[in-house]
Amino acid sequence: MLADFIVIYDRDLIRLKNEIQAFTPAANLWRITGQVTNTAGNLGLHLVGNLKTYIGKNLGNNAYVRDREAEFSLKNVPQEKLIQQIEETRQVVAAALQKLDNAQLANTYPKKLWAIL
Fold it and tell me: Is it true that the peptide bond before 25 is cis, omega within 30 degrees of 0?
């Protein structure tokens, strides 16, 4: 089961990278169109921050410090930098998940996620 998680996260992060690379011109990553209020670039930053926090830091015990506000306020991050962050996230997620065993997967998540829990 753990191997499946690793494959799925890696597959989907590759898909995210491919989607980010498909933006031409790259400036379109930071455009807001229609009723969508977040840019594709900001959503990419948010996914990276989320995975590095909830899997890398909380499960893998790495030292990542999240700046969630910046995930939505930063603009015009170069496309290559965002792609690099996605690649780093692939490595962080894989390393964290590889440290786990099936018994740990059966445990309750180690951090409180929302105030209502």
Answer: yes
